[in-house]
Amino acid sequence: MIEVESLVKTFGDVPAVDGISFSVKQGEIFAFLGPNGAGKSTAIQMLTTLIRPTSGSARVNGFDVVKREKDVRLSIGVALQETGIDKVLTGRELLVLQGRLFKMTKREAEARAEELLSVVSLAEAADRKSGTYSGGMRRRLDLALTLVHRPIVLFLDEPTTGLDPASRIEIWKEVRRLNQEFGTTIFLTTQYLEEADELADRIAIIHHGKIVVEGTAEELKQTVGGESISLVFHTDSEARAAAELFGQTAAGPSLVFELHDYTLTDVVRKLDEQALQPERLTVKQPSLDDVFLKVTGESYEGGVPSVD
Questions:
Q1: What CA–CA distance (Å, rounded) separates 218 from 287?
Q2: In a domain, 290, yes or no
Q3: What is the span of the domain harbouring residue 237?
Q4: Which of 60, 88, 266, 286 gives a 20 to 30 Å CA spacing to 12?
């Protein structure tokens, strides 16, 4: 579906995208994960023919994004961060207009609008002006607009940025449904670790314009080890005593180590045998945050979901 080889985009002397290569299979949800300024939006703009690469190549649905721009555009749907929806028209009117722009007859456009309003759960609000829609409803309408011409691949650029948690979950449901029920291949960019973990079949982490690691969420997490346990004691001496039991080093009253050679039951039993009672015990699964720290040496500073 998507084949990218050594793709570069520079602005002046600054490389916004610096030699990235990857592929996306048919029917896959592929996520580009990275903080603001990592190169996500620049990459999606090249793949959707909005800007031309400086060098390298990319093919979408078998079409070269430079040599066959029109064919690429006719075979994809694109939802960018800014929706640009006309607030005066109703949801239904916007969908019909989109259909007509794709050379559908009036009857075909009206039927497709009706179908899509149901798909994105906007049937009840179909005849309200879109300017009265909530942020989540506008995003769902934007999603419907990208689907009017039945695209083979759907590009979503940070689809839930600025939405409240409930609206984000609704968008996630729609994205999953499009993929599972209609087999739509989806390429999405996101700055939210949770979103990539929740939605994507595969994830590429992009940092300073380069892909630093790629794989499924589980594959990426396995690169940083297994479960870890965090113990917090009342005193530093208790933490040191516990650390000696497990061949670890305490940091003040705290002790953190991976559960390579122990089960949680082993840890609790050993502590109990020595009459060591932690004030707090937490078992932690590896996260994409841990992956980002490992591959970049930096803590992740992606977006924090805000309320629309």
A1: 9
A2: no
A3: 228-284
A4: 60
pTM of the model: 0.81
pLDDT mean for each 10 residues of the chain (308 residues): 96 95 97 91 95 97 96 93 84 96 96 94 95 91 92 92 86 90 93 92 95 94 86 95 93 89 91 94 88 83 50
Amino acid identity, residue 136? G
Which residue type does 20 have?
Answer: I
Cβ–Cβ < 8 Å for 190, 32: yes
The predicted structure's pLDDT at residue 304:
46
- Secondary element (H or E) of residue 142: helix 135-147
Among 213, 235, 218, residue whose Cα is nearest residue 296: 213
Q: Which amino acid is at 103?
A: K
**Are 227 and 284 within 8 A, CB to CB?**
yes
- Report residue 17 CA to chain centroid gap: 18
Is the dihedral angle over the CA atoms 63, 65, 67, 70 positive or is it negative?
positive
How far apart CA 35 and CA 20 sit, in angstroms, is 17
